[in-house]
Write a structure and sequence with these properties.
- The protein is α+β, with helices and mostly antiparallel strands.
- Among the domains are: about 50 residues; about 30 residues, no CATH class.
- Helices cover about 40% and strands about 15% of the residues.
- The mean pLDDT is about 85.
Length: about 140
């Protein structure tokens, strides 16, 4: 006695036709190109995020150091007072009036000014109104 046939599906080896090979080759090329593009985008994205992370890391490090040490350096306007007798210059903070340092005058600082700077003086000599004057003319 013969039983009824059952139908089943199996994955079996099949040789590709020339047309199927062309189709598979075109699909493969598209996928390889997509992978390359995505890898480049991934690198660019990773570089962007690395830069952002590095910026925040640097800021956090500076803040951590300031908190740990209890101070930070800032650009503060200061005044100087020259003492030609002792050949020293004293630096004073303008925000607190606090003494910063006294140091020896450097050679280029040792010459006293003959005239005080006049805030009302013109920034340039305007006798010739910007024109060049030839001597003797």
């Amino acid at each position: 006695m013969i039983d009824m046939q059952d139908v089943l599906t199996l994955n079996l080896k099949c040789l590709l036709t020339d047309d199927e090979k062309m189709e598979r080759g075109a699909a493969l090329a598209e996928h390889v190109q997509a992978i390359e593009v995505l890898n480049e985008e991934k690198k660019a994205s990773a570089a962007t995020f690395k830069t952002k992370i590095d910026i925040h890391t640097l800021e956090a490090s500076g803040l951590s150091t300031a908190l740990h040490d209890g101070y930070e350096y800032r650009a503060i306007k200061c005044t100087t007072q020259k003492n030609y007798e002792t050949r020293t210059i004293t630096v004073i903070r303008t925000d607190t009036g606090e003494f910063v340092e006294t140091r020896p005058l450097e050679i280029h600082e040792m010459q006293a000014r003959l005239f005080d700077d006049d805030a009302n003086a013109p920034a340039y000599d305007d006798r010739h109104n910007g024109k060049i004057t030839v001597l003797g003319k």
